[in-house]
Amino acid sequence: MGRYLDALSFLSRLVVRPGQTAARFQDCLPAFAPAGATLGLIWTALALAAWHFAATAGVPSVFCSLVAGWIWTLALLWTTRCLHWDGVADLADACGSGAAGERFWQIMRDSRLGALGALAVSMGLAGSLLLAAAHLAQDDWPLLILAPAWGRACSLLLAASAPAQGGGSLGKLVCAAMTPQRVRQQLAWLGLAAALAGMFVPVWQLLLLLAGQYLLHRRLCRTALCHGGLSGDFLGASIETAQLWFLLALL
User: Fold this and answer.
1) Which of 23, 69, 153, 208 has the fewest CB atoms within 10 Å, i.e. the most exposed one?
2) Has this prediction a pTM greater than 0.85?
3) At what angle do helices 32-56 and 115-137 cross, to 10 degrees?
4) How far apart are CA 249 and CA 210, in angstroms?
């Protein structure tokens, strides 16, 4: 339970756990997927409440789903303090620049938002809103609970698949903590999420999900290897892209 609460404390503002250390952070990594499912449950409950409120107010159903999708996305941003979206922006800016070597990492670490980063975040949030609305409209809202767990488990598998970039970065802590046992744990979480998703979608969509996730995983691995390793921004971008892909593939 302590590791689960530590994971929630790192991933959201919902729990405050003082005295965090690098060792405690590494110990809580196996609980990232359950913590993600907890966040997804909260976001989905708020979205369903918004749907019900809009429906009882006489709002047309198409707008009910859009309002609920917006609430799901807004809850995502508020509870996580926009964590991981900075990784999406930084990685888009750095990869889009065509830079290599130290210049690539200078762009990644630059706190200023570039045009490509702004576009990536805008498109990602728009996709989150629309996909959440579509799943709510189809009444397969349980997939909105599973998506955050899927994204966080996929991110930890990425950390086990490529070395960390030099320095005392968050990525280095995560990569160092991903033992074979923890890799098997994340694969088990992914298997459970896929099995639960199979209750709502046909098998071909599950196969599409797995194939697309594999390609996305390989692409991020290759990019990291080309530029000297993984950082926290890579892992944050992996969470958001895997989460979006889960919602898109299973639509």
Assistant:
1) 23
2) yes
3) 60
4) 9
